[in-house]
Amino acid sequence: MCNGQDCLSEDSTSFTARTIHRNKEERMLRSVGRGLWNYRSLIFIILTPLLLLPLPLVIRTKVAECAFVLLLMAVFWVTEVIPLSMTAMLPALLFPMFGIMKSSNVAKEYFKDFHFLLVGVICLATSIEKWGLHRRIALRLVSMVGVNPAWLMLGFMSGCAFLSMWVQNTSAVTMVMPIVEAVLQQILKAKELGCNGNVNPDLQLYETDMKIESIKKIASDEKKPDAPAENFTCVEIQKPPQSDSAQPQSDQSDPAQPQSDQSDPAQPQSDQSDPAQAAACVPAVVSRSQQDLMMCKAMCIGIAYSSNIGGITTLPGTSPNLIFSEYLNQIYPECNCINFGNWLLMCLPISVIMLLLTWIWLYWLFLGSDFTFLWQCDGVQSGKEKAARKVIEEEYKSLGAIRPQEIFTGMVFLLMVVLWLTRSPGFMPGWASLFPHHSGYITDATVALLLGFLFFIVPAHGPDKKYEAMISWDEFQALMPWKVALLVGGGFALAEGAKESGMSLWVAKLLMPLGDMPVLATVTVACIIVTTLTEVTSNAATITIFLPILSPLAEAIHVNPLYVLIPTTLCTSFSFLLPVSNPPNAVVFSYGHITIMDMVKAGLGVNVIGLLAVLLAVATWGVPLFSLDTYPDWAPVLPGFNSTIP
Predict the structure, then answer these.
(1) Which residue has the higher pLDDT, 54 or 498?
(2) Residues contacting residue 586 through CB under 8 Å, at least 6 positions apart
(3) What is the DSSP letter of 191?
(4) Whole-angstrom Cα distance, residue 539 to residue 582?
(5) Rounded distance, CA 18 to CA 318, Å?
(6) Which of 46, 443, 483, 550 has the most other CB atoms within 10 Å of its CB?
């Protein structure tokens, strides 16, 4: 037996050993947990196909094999554990292995008429950005509406919406936001405020080829591949010379802002050594009053939302519109209902309604319920309004006289729009009828590609300078959204595989009981589902997933497919809730004026506005425009359908 002291010593030693052992186990568990967390994407990539394997291995039908590919792609697109564009390659890998389609046939689906249209539009967008036509348009639109904060917000929103009708949404935001930021700085100009404690008295705007790392990371890792990495127009914050003791602390700037850009030799350098002097889109900090802060929030959120609202107006305005158009040509080749003109007639009123109601909603949410400015005549301007007007006028004057390059770009832009509108307007013969022996050969892509080709031929300068085309291949390539091109190709391949395997017909029969519901109720449910999913999933991926499901649904309930597909396509672009919902939201969020909760509160209202506007359109002026109340001849008639009248 041990005496008391020895027993106590043994107990203490045993306790220490157990403690050490327990600590080792805890450290090991933490290490294993950390390793699992770090490799969670790889684990998910491996587990997902394993869980779905019973479909091709147990059921052993072409429908089950195609469903395996569809579900695998949908999960990978939603979670983004694999880059979206590489997930789009899965049909090229799996369809030949399952015997659904030959590899050569799958490959044909990855390059369609859509891609030629995209190339032509990006050529135009490249020239617009290179020669600064976007800045002239935006400043002119803003100066037309006035400098009252409410009208100023409407002016910027209108300018951004107009630009996003013709260029990618992210491009439109990155064109307009630096001007908005500069105007906000001048409005908030005072001793105790400004951008990082400084004011930019000269309001210098310039183009930089640097990709801002923070915005690039948010937008490139985004779930929304609507646009490529952008060249950002940035505001250079110039500070008056200060002594070393009075030098502001640059480390207090927003951590989301790029501090490493200044080390790049290609970046224009300021004379100051402070990192805050680097060209970057630096957000303003706390403004003078709560009202000023709310004005910044409303202005910035309005820019993000207006880019999406404007994008739905035209077919090339956003990826879901183009994907829908090409899907329609592929699945319903006899359908000639959708063209640039009637899409514009359908969606322009939706965009106008959404833009005005969103403007009023944001004003009420952030600036209050005083709408007396709507009917008040122009009176004495406040100091803020004078500062805003001054900076807009000075910036417009700094552009100088319009240059020949801008004139040519504008003429090509107008010519492209006119040719799109008059190719086949529907109510009268268009210019395409001049080629009667080649009916259906010429599309909107032909027009876009022809005019886009001109930018690589027409000289940018006169004969006194070395020949240089309006745009170069490198400039075009920097703006070309190759990720979107691959993603869309994967969607087309998936849709064709669903048709070849019989999965589309199987889904149609499965959905036939929905014919007992009112069609508008079915469309509303589909729109709500799509609007919810698109908040956390790529717009292009969302519409690619739902098109092969919704078109068989329309056939199953014997309703014009356009009645279901058009509203759901439009709702795919309503990603307003989160900064990660799409790149425009992320770019605006990176300026530091808004919080996630600001965007969530504002986005909920805009989602409701958009949903109601779309449903109003398809129930009223959309019916005669696309004959939505009749089942078309170009859509197949399934045996045993449930007849439903919209």
Answers:
(1) 54
(2) 215, 218, 219, 222, 579, 580
(3) T
(4) 8
(5) 63
(6) 550
Predicted confidence band of residue 7 (pLDDT cuts 50, 70, 90): low
Q: How confident is the model at residue 613 (pLDDT cuts 50, 70, 90)?
A: very high
CA atoms of 17 and 103, how far apart (whole Å) = 63
- Can you name the residues that pair with 459 across neighbouring β-strands? 469
DSSP state for residue 58 in the 8-state scheme: I
Cα(392)–Cα(183) distance, integer angstroms = 7
Q: Which residue in this structure is represented by tokens 């985004």?
A: 222
Residues in CB range of 570: below 8 A, 6 or more apart: 312, 320, 347, 350, 610, 614
Q: Which residues pair with 236 in a beta bridge?
A: 204
Answer yes or no: are the C-beta atoms of 494 and 547 closer than 8 Å.
no
Could you please report the per-residue DSSP string of 367-388?
H-S--GGGTPPP-PPPHHHHHH
What are the φ and ψ backbone dihedral angles of 257, each rounded to 5 degrees? -85, 150
Q: Is the pLDDT reported for residue 524 higher than 70?
A: yes
pLDDT of residue 228: 38
Examine the pLDDT at 609 and tell me if it is beyond 80. Answer: yes
Q: Residue 120 and residue 456: Cα distance in Å, rounded?
A: 11
Distance in angstroms (rounded) separating the CA atoms of residues 127 and 455: 8
Contact at 8 Å (CB) between 529 and 491?
Answer: no
Tokens linked to 88: 């789009």
pLDDT in tens, 556-584: 888 899 999 999 999 999 988 877 677 78
Q: Measure the CA–CA gap between 75 and 87, rounded to whole angstroms.
A: 10
Give yes or no for a contact between 490 and 504, defined as CB atoms under 8 angstroms apart: no
d(CA 594, CA 601): 11
CA–CA distance, 502 with 595 (Å, rounded to integer) = 47
State the Cα–Cα distance between residues 51 and 82, nearest whole angstrom.
Answer: 17
For residue 88, give the DSSP letter: T
Comparing 352-356, 424-428, 567-571, the range with the smallest average pLDDT is: 424-428
pTM above 0.85, yes or no: no
**DSSP per-residue codes, 495-533:** HHHHHHHTHHHHHHHHTGGGGGS-HHHHHHHHHHHHHHH
478 token code pair? 């920097």
Tokens, residue 434: 């001049």
Q: Which band of pLDDT confidence, cut at 50, 70 and 90, is reported for residue 251? A: very low
Amino acid (one-letter) located at 296 = C
Which pLDDT does position 620 carry in this prediction?
Answer: 92
SS3 (DSSP) at 207: strand
